[in-house]
Amino acid sequence: MLAGETGVKVFTATKAKERDELGENITRWLRSNPEIQIIDKKVTQSSDNDYHCLTVTVIYKKP
Question: 5-62 belongs to which CATH class?
């Protein structure tokens, strides 16, 4: 069992501009939470004829 608080943060983008900014948004969140320890992460892409969705899921622990 992990000591401390465990959390999940999900970043998602559907529009091209949002996908372009996704990395910056994740970096900004990580910099504003320097105390967290990333336990796992997963990148998921899904699409249909009209939309392409990119999701980054971060599982983390706070001391």
Answer: alpha beta
